[in-house]
Amino acid sequence: MSIGRDDIGQRSETVRRANLSAIVRELHAHGPLSRSELVARTGLTRSAIRGLIGELADAGLVTESPAARLGMPGRPSPLVRLDPGGAVVIALEIEVDAIAAAIVGLGGHVFELERVDRPRGHSSLDDTVADLADLAALVRSRRPPSDRLVGVGAAVAGIVRRADGFVSMAPNLGWRDVPLGGRLAGALAVSVPVSVANEADLGALAELRRGAGVGETHVLFISGEVGVGGGLIVDGRPLTGAAGYAGEIGHMTVNPDGAPCRCGSVGCWETEVGGGALLALAGRPRESGRAGIDAVVSEAAAGSETALAALDQVGRWLGLGLASLVNVLDPRLIVLGGLFGRIHPYVIGPLTSALDRRALPASRALVHVVPAALGVDAALLGAAELAFEALLADPARWVASRETPAELATA
Amino acid sequence: MSIGRDDIGQRSETVRRANLSAIVRELHAHGPLSRSELVARTGLTRSAIRGLIGELADAGLVTESPAARLGMPGRPSPLVRLDPGGAVVIALEIEVDAIAAAIVGLGGHVFELERVDRPRGHSSLDDTVADLADLAALVRSRRPPSDRLVGVGAAVAGIVRRADGFVSMAPNLGWRDVPLGGRLAGALAVSVPVSVANEADLGALAELRRGAGVGETHVLFISGEVGVGGGLIVDGRPLTGAAGYAGEIGHMTVNPDGAPCRCGSVGCWETEVGGGALLALAGRPRESGRAGIDAVVSEAAAGSETALAALDQVGRWLGLGLASLVNVLDPRLIVLGGLFGRIHPYVIGPLTSALDRRALPASRALVHVVPAALGVDAALLGAAELAFEALLADPARWVASRETPAELATA
Question: What is the pTM of this model?
Fold first, then answer.
C-alpha cells in the first residue's frame, strides 16, 4: 500500500496543526526553549520548526531572541518563548469559605491573583456567581485591554460533568444540580469558552504540570479542606471515569461503623481525615475552617499534646486510606494538597506506618509521598491550565483567527 | 510544511503494519466480516483492504469465501474469516486448588480445554510448573502438528510484573518472588513468548473482548475464589498502574478492626467477601474451597437460613467495597466473576442496597452490576487473549516469517 497523492494535502494540514500544538505545549510546559531543543523534543526538522515558529510569531503567541552561546560550538540557536500576554485566561476557584480569581498568561505566568474569605452561609449559587464576577472584573481591570482572553476555567469542590460544567453535587457548598458553567459564562459576559472541573482534579493537573508531579505519569493527588477530593493521573492522563465523576476518594468507606457523612453515607474517609475531623479531634469547633486548622498546626508546633494527638490520628487514617488506593491504583507518587500539605510534617510519620502496614509490598516499595508544591493555589492554577486546554490542543485555530477571538465561543 | 518524499517509504511501511493489525484485531474481536464491513470499520479503501487480505491469506492467517447476498443490491462482498488453526496459543491458569490448560485459535475458538483439581498443599512452584507442563502436553497432543503456535499466556492469582512474568507475591499460593514466566518457558520447551498476568486482569480482558463487557469502555471486573482480585478497564484500556500492580482491590481496607489478611494487613475486603469468609459464615471449613461454596449455594437454593444469611452478609460487604470503587473510578459496568458470578442471584439484593446507600448518586446512577458471562473460564480465556497480543499488535512479523516461528522468541 502506498499513500495516494490526494491524501497528502489533508494529512499535511492535520500534521501542521498537530505540530503547532506540540510546539506550544512544550513551551507552555517547560518555558523558553532554543530551536535546537524544540527539534530534539518534537522530532521535527529544523526547517519545519522555523516555519511553524514563524506562524506562531505572526499570531503574536511567541517571540524569539538571540540565545547566549553557552560555550557550545556553532551558531547560537535563537531562544523561543511564549508571549504571556499573547493569550491569557481567567482562573476561578470556589471554596466553602473563600473564592479566588487570577489572570494567567500562556506559559503559566500569574499576572494577577486575588483570594478573598467569605463568611460561612454566603455560598449560595447566586451570591457565589456574583462575587466571582466582581472579583474577575477586579483582576481584569488591572491588565491592559490588549490582553487576548482565550478562556475561563473554574475549580469547584463538587462533582462536575466536564462537558458543560454542570455541578451535580457539592455537599459542602450545599449545591445540587447547578448549571455553574452556564451561570458563570453569563455573569462574566465573556465570549470565550468557560470550563468547570473538580478542584482536586485541577490541583492534580497543576501539580503535574508545574508542581511536585512534573515528569511523573502515575500520580495520586489528595486534596482536602472541609471535604476531601482526589485527582488521579494514570499513564500521564487524568482518570476521569465514564462520566467525569472519578476521583471521589473522600467517599471511600474506611470505617463502616463511623460517623455520618454529608454525602448521605457513613464512615467515609472524609469523616476521619477532613478538616472537620481534625478540628473536632483538637477540641475546636468544626466550623472554624482554615483559621482553626492553622491554629491547630501552631499549637502542635508549640508542643500541644491535644493538637499532636489529633494530627497523629488523622495521619493514621490518611495512611489507611492511601494504602487502599495504592493497592487499587499502583501510583508512583502521592501528592498531599490543601490541608494535607500544610499538616504534612505532623502526619507523615503515622501515615507512613499505616502505609507500610497496609499497602502490598510490591506497590508500596515504588511509591513516594510528598507535599504539594503549589500550596493553596494548586486548584486555581489548575483551572488556568484547564482554560488553556483548547488553545494547547489546536493553536492553529487561534493562529488563523487572531482578530476575532469572539468567534471561538461559538466554534 | 509538507511531507518529504523520503518520509513516504517509511510511513508507508508503518501504515501497512498498522493496517494489518487493525484488520486482524477486527476479525479477532468480531468474527467473520465482509470486505465491505472491514472498509467501514477500519476506514481503509476497498483496494487497500484487498491487498492486505491477500497478504494475510498468503500467510495462512485468513481465508475468504463468497458471502450470501442478504437481499442487498450489487455484487456480494466476500466474507473474510480468520483461520483458527493459522495461529494458536496455549492458555494456562493457576488457581490454589486447580490448574487449567487450553489450546485457543486466533479468533477465540477453544480447541481443547482441561481443568483439573489439585489437593491443597500441592501448589509449590515446582509441582505447579510440572503439572502445567503435563497438562499443556496433553492438550497439544490432541491437535495436529500443523497448528502454528504463536504464544503462551498464563493467569495466576498473584501480583505479577508484566515485563517478565515475575510473581512478587501470591499469598494464597504461598509464593513470593517467583520467576514464573521463565520457569514456564523452560518447562514447556517452547520457543514462542510466554506472558504471565494476574488472573483478575485477564478475566477482565476476556469479559471485555468476549463476555459481559463487549462494547464497554469503563469496566470494573471483580473476581474471587480464595482471594479477591480486580481488573480495571478505563477508556477501553487496562489500568495497570506504574509497575503493573494495580487492581489489588481485595486489599482495600474495609474494616479497620476486622480479621487478619494473608497479605499481612487487617480488615482487607478479601477477609469479608472472599471464599473463606463465605464458608466460615456458612459454618463450613475455610479449606473446603470451590466444592464447599457450591454446597453453600445448593443449601441456599434449598432455603437454608444459615446459607442465606451468610450470602446476605457477603452481599452487604460486596456492595460496601464496590461503592468505594464506584466513587473512586466511576465505571459504567461492574462484572462479578468467579465465586461472585456463581453467588450473584443471592447477593445482588444486599449488594444493590449497600451500593445505593454508599455510592455517590451521580456515579451510582450510571453503573450496572452483572454476572460474568464466561463463568469459570474467564481468566483462562484472558490468558489466551494475552498470548495473542503480540500477533495482534504486529501481524506483519508473522506474515513475513511464516516458515520460521521459532525465530520469534528471540525477536
Answer: 0.85
